[in-house]
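User: quick one, fold this
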Amino acid sequence: MRCAAVIVAAGSSRRMGFDKLAAEIRGVSVLRRSVDAFMATPEVTRVIVVAPQERFAALGTGLPKPLLRADGGKERQNSVENGLALVEEELVAVHDGARPLVTPQAISTCISEAGDTGAATLARQVTETIKRADADDFARESVSRELLWFMETPQIFRTALLRQAYATVREKGLIVTDEVSAMEAIGVFTKLVASPSPNLKITVPADIELATALLR
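Assistant:
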């Protein structure tokens, strides 16, 4: 099945204090690394970047597959819908532009699962001890980590299903932070695919150093 990628890169990077998507990791910007991973994935036929014109223009030209731009929206879910409007393929992969270490192999595995089940996402099992705190930040009790996962991206779906999910989210006035949550609104559960390698999200300046070290 053919797959389009919607890379969400419309945020302002307020927590970083600078444009984290333009920050370089071994000479290549965070956003360009994310784009390149999908360009190198055989099943992906086009890449749609949801970003301001200036950020999009910095990606350059001469890429091996069609590269399109969509405007960002007020909320992340609005940005995803804007990108989704340009999708013609049977499957769509939604990815945070700030996850530059995702690999084509991991993307392909997730696409395969989504083709079989209709909905799949890269994720990481919780391995740390989890505590529930009180209002004063004192640890009060342990929380079982069994069956708990950290969500990652890409999150990949049959395009028609994701459009239906976001139509429902819009009609109900819901705010969702990822596509797995949107799918839950229509009663569709998403297959969790364990990431085979680090797939961190660049959030604070130290993450740039960590990603650089991981690539070495």
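User: anything notable?
Assistant: Residues 3-123+151-215 form a domain with the Spore Coat Polysaccharide Biosynthesis Protein SpsA; Chain A fold (CATH 3.90.550.10).
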